[in-house]
Fold:
Amino acid sequence: MARSKCPSCEYHEFEAVQVTTKTGQKFCLIQCVACGCVVGALDEVKITNVIKIAEKKLSKFLENLNRKVITACQRKNS
Ligand SMILES: [Zn+2]
Structure:
């Protein structure tokens, strides 16, 4: 795998910096530790969405699991 390098100074280390715009939008910028050259940006909305999707999947999974447990209990009782 190729090593990531800064396009400006060719340094190999990067950091994530959280930035909030005037409108309150939050971004996560990936910048070079050495010169601060921004090499990427993450939309926090996207990050939140990913978490939300994961949460939805998990709750659905738990719901299914609950149903299975209930069905199993009912079978035992009858
Ligand atoms: Zn750099």
User: Anything to note?
Assistant: The first strand starts at residue 14 and ends at 20.
